[in-house]
Every structure is written in structure tokens, then in C-alpha cells.
Amino acid sequence: MGSLYDVTPTVVVGPVSRGALVGALTAAALGVGFVEMRKNQAPATDSDRWVQRTTAPDYRDRHVVFGFRRDLVRAGDRVLLVDDWADTGATAVTARQLVEDSGAQWIGAACIVDALTDARLRHDLPLRALLNVRTL
């Protein structure tokens, strides 16, 4: 079965917690690596080894700090974000920034439910979904 995108990912990124579950399953099905994008990670002794970004306001009007270890996503990787739900797109936009900060290639985002309020994000990310919130 081919990828939804023009380029097959070499790494799948999934935000904690449900995104990490569906992301890990997607990575296993594709036979590629998986990286968990952690939320509000407390400073650690190896904080210089982390790449972090803060989201725009999410659906609860919160700003969340996401990140992962710098050595898990490298230049030359082709990265796909997988999550359960896309509402404001803040998580996906932040994931894209983290991927680009790592020197890797962003190929897109995939989710189970698309509830995006800004239709431009579907094209800009690009985002693919199994269901649209209007059909639920």
C-alpha cells in the first residue's frame, strides 16, 4: 500500500498521548522509525539536546511547549506527523517547525478526525484525515 503523500516518510512523529499511540502504530505499519513529541517537558540535565517550540493557542486557548530529543530527527529524514484529532492546527504547525529546526523534511500530517476551522491549513500542512468532524 502506498503512502498518502508523494514521499514515503522515514520517521513518524506523534504528540503525546493519543498521537503517540496512533503514530507508533502507523510507524510500525510503514516499517519506519517513531518519535514521541513530548508536551511541557520539564527541564532536564540534557536540555541542550532537546529541540522545543511553543504552540499558538490550542482549542482550550493554552500554549503548549512540545519537543523531542535533537538526535531522534536528523537532517535527511522525511517526517510525517500522525495524531488523533486536528482542531486549530497548532500542534501540527509546531511539529512542522520542530522538524524544520532539526533540518529534516516535513512531508505532511495525518489524523483520524479533521476538525480544522482554518481550511488553508489542510493545504499548507498538508493534512489528510480519515474523517471530517462534520460527518460525525
From TrEMBL:
Main location per the UniProt record: cytoplasm
Q: GO MF terms on file?
A: adenine phosphoribosyltransferase activity
Q: Which UniProt keywords apply?
A: Cytoplasm, Glycosyltransferase, Membrane, Purine salvage, Transferase, Transmembrane, Transmembrane helix
Any transmembrane segments, and where? 12-35
Q: What biological-process terms (Gene Ontology) are attached?
A: purine ribonucleoside salvage
User: Can the keyword Transmembrane be found in this entry's annotation?
Assistant: yes
Residues covered by the Phosphoribosyltransferase domain: 5-120
**What CDD domains does UniProt report for this protein, alphabetically?**
PRTases_typeI
Q: Which InterPro entries match?
A: Adenine_PRTase, PRTase-like, PRTase_dom
Task: Kindly list the places in or outside the cell where this protein is found, as annotated in its UniProt entry.
Answer: Cytoplasm
The record's Pfam families line, in alphabetical order, gives: Pribosyltran
Q: In which pathway does it act?
A: Purine metabolism
GO terms for CC? cytoplasm
Q: How does it assemble?
A: Homodimer.
Give the matching PANTHER family. Answer: ADENINE PHOSPHORIBOSYLTRANSFERASE (PTHR11776), PHOSPHORIBOSYLTRANSFERASE DOMAIN-CONTAINING PROTEIN (PTHR11776:SF7)
Would you identify the family this protein belongs to, as annotated?
A: Belongs to the purine/pyrimidine phosphoribosyltransferase family.
Q: What is this protein called?
A: Phosphoribosyltransferase domain-containing protein
The source organism is Kribbella capetownensis
